[in-house]
Amino acid sequence: MKNIKQALIIAQLTIEENIRKKILYILLFLSFALIAFSASFTSFDLGAQVTIMKDISLSGIALFGIVLTLSLFLNVIPKEIETKTIYPFITQPITRGTYITGKYIGLMSIIAVNLLILGLELMVVMKIYSDNWNVMIINSIILNILQCGIIGGLMLLFSLFTSYPLTLSITLFLYILGGVSTPYIQYLQGRLPKVLLDFVVFIKLIIPKFDCFNIKDAVVHMNALPQGYFAWATIYGLAYVIITVMIATILFEKKDL
Amino acid sequence: MEFVIEAENLSKTYKTEGKKILALDNLNLKIEKGQIFGFIGPNGAGKTTSIKLFLGLIHPTSGTVKVLGKPAGSPEAMEKIGYLSEIAYYYKFLEAKNLLRYYASLKSLSKEEADKRIDLNLKLVGLYDRRNEKLKGYSKGMLQRFGIALALLGNPELLILDEPTSGLDPIGRKEVKDIIKRLRSKGISIFLSSHNLSEVERLCDSIGIINKGKMISNKKISEFLSYDKNVYTMTIQDKEDKIAKLFKEKNIKIEQTENLHLKTTLPSNDIPEIFKLVSDNGGVVVNTIPGYGDLEEIFFELVAPKEDKEDKKDKDKKDKEDKKDKEDKKDKEDKKDKEDKKDKEDKKDKENKKDKEDKKDKEDKKDKEDKKKKKNKKVKAKEN
Ligand SMILES: Nc1ncnc2c1ncn2[C@@H]1O[C@H](COP(=O)(O)OP(=O)(O)OP(=O)(O)O)[C@@H](O)[C@H]1O
Ligand SMILES: [Mg+2]
Questions:
Q1: Residue A21 DSSP class
Q2: What is the ipTM of this complex?
Q3: CA proximity to B217, closest of B34, B67, B27, B86
Q4: What confidence tens digit (pLDDT) does each residue in B239-275 have?
Q5: 3-state DSSP percent of chain A in helix, strand and coil, to 5
Q6: Full 3-state SS string of B332-380
Q7: Atom of ligand 1 at shortest distance to CA of A256?
């Protein structure tokens, strides 16, 4: 109980620190503008226009989420260690795991709130154009948030033992590899040294399949998702989040501050 | 006996860019509850490294350390530890009071209690009037004061202060020292690191001297300074270079010679005779201090000569010095034996003194206050 309370306090402080960052508002404004801009597409066919709007907006929101995650998570803990602003916190009666979890929750709350704002904006626009609340948009946003959660967890993890350019590169590499479907990997067979290929296949096996958080096509074309898909994807995402934060905690505990 | 810090064979090696730096070498340290322990040593001696190990901020390469009977850095231990870092590492974007609230909410303090203690401590360090200003606008000394308020936040049983008076003006230093004295009277144990020897001398019950990662000495303050009223340390200017010879003839031990200045320790009965001898031979008695010199001298005797020696790179010299070292060691051992004997005597004397002092105390209070004022003036003068 005490740990949870402490984590939430760290989260609150993290939010208070980060909502002062201009980048947050710039990104938010750009995405807002994108959705408004997509609404200005005119077409003879209202149905086609709505489809285009949804497509552009959902892609925009997903991209916004990733960029925001990369910019917020890049360097969080290393910066605190370097400036040693972490000292007055870690010397309170708090475990390192609680601290890092609090940081994570704080940053993820910012991301979640931002994505939900954009999702709501899109829903309102859709309501105006197609006169129906497209609830699937919210499902799509939630899966986006989970995807950002995994990316954030990975960054937290890597930033504890590498420099931030490397953290960024590794995370992006894993994100892209995680989204690539298996046939592409088969295509690499024979074109890459065996060791490297085995390595790629192994990595592919353990990293999350990021494409399963992307239900944009289903939302855009109003196709129903397989039964239980959303619940399954949520659990899958949460599991990865928990695992990455746990590994980050173990690494963080071993670290000299 | 209850110990607030127990370090056993504690070592720390830093690895940076392929280099290994042995920052702390086999530290064995036990600090009794209720004590003020002064940890002194030159820059890079390993003071901060030791403190970080006590707080669990870094992990030992070998050895163990327990703080308040619990593993270093564990939340159970940290609940009752107040820590002041050597440099201010606080968020600048929050107001002082607001930030203290955040720190307090991580402790097991009720909200009302936390608010009460925050106000109390801000008043104590003189920041209450500026409690609603952001730390961005604080001066170095104000940040240091803020740090002290933070360290005292959770009713600590143990305070770990890394150079608590650095960055403070003379008034601030005195205030911090007064705070430390007040805390001692409440039975709080304090570990403080410092370069400022006169500070340590006045505040501490025990002091440890550390150099190049090794603790060279760890004693009760009374063992360092024997304020034996019958012994005086004299500094004599030997203008015509005669006095040293005369002293040798008369078998008076010279402790130090530097720029035609001699230093010697004498029983009080001999002083008139020495004064006469000095003035007859063209010398001047520069000063006469009761006791065996002050801590600063002991410190530099322990620390400075070694550093000088290692700076010299000539092998020949080193060889010679090795021989000297051996001789020095012998001397030191001899000294130790003597000191041990003296200590025993000192203790007896003190017990007698205490009884006498209790009686005197009541009468002397006024006198002492006057003296204190004078002392403070002296201290300020020194610090300036
Ligand atoms: N993070 C680190 N990485 C590498 N070396 C370090 C690190 N921290 C300290 N050292 C080295 O360890 C030694 C002891 O440093 P430490 O900070 O403990 O000294 P100190 O006694 O606190 O000195 P000061 O009085 O200057 O504060 C020094 O040689 C220092 O260079
Ligand atoms: Mg230091």
A1: -
A2: 0.86
A3: B27
A4: 778 888 888 888 887 777 777 777 777 777 788 888 8
A5: 80, 0, 20
A6: HHHHHHHHHHHHHHHHHHHHHHHHHHHHHHHHHHHHHHHHHHHHHHHHH
A7: 1
B298 in Cβ contact with B218 (< 8 Å): no
β-sheet with B81-84: strand ranges across: B81-84, B158-162, B189-194, B36-40, B206-211, B214-220
Q: What are phi and psi of B277, to 5 degrees?
A: -60, -40
Give the ligand whose atoms come closest to the C-alpha of residue B57: 1
Inform me whether the C-beta atom of residue A84 falls under 8 Å from chain B C-beta atoms: yes
Of A136, A173, A180, residue with least CA distance to A158:
A173
What's the CA gap between A59 and B210, in Å, rounded? 62
Helix H or strand E encompassing A169: helix A164-179
Q: How would you class B125 by CB atoms within 10 Å of its CB: exposed for 0-12, middle for 13-18, buried for 19 or more?
A: buried
Q: Report the nearest-CA residue for atom 30 of ligand 1.
A: B44
Nearest to A6 among B57, B81, B106 (CB): B106
Q: What is the pLDDT of residues A101-133, one digit of tens each?
A: 999 999 999 999 999 998 988 888 888 877 777
Residue ranges of the alpha helices (H) in B134-242?
140-151, 170-185, 197-203, 221-224
The tokens describing A13, both together, are 């402080």
Task: For residues B26 and B29, give the distance between their C-alpha atoms in angstroms, rounded to a whole number.
Answer: 10
Residues 6+ apart with CB under 8 A from B274: B234, B236, B252, B264, B266, B285
Q: Running DSSP on this structure, what letter comes out for residue B130?
A: G
Per domain, the residue ranges of chain A are: 2-254
Q: What are phi and psi for residue B288, nearest 5 degrees? A: -135, 120
The H or E element spanning position A25 is helix A22-39
Q: Which residue of A has its CA nearest to B57?
A: A257
Mutate to test the pocket of ligand 1, among B12, B13, B14 (most ligand atoms within 8 A of CB): B14
Whole-number Å distance between alpha carbons of A147 and A152: 9
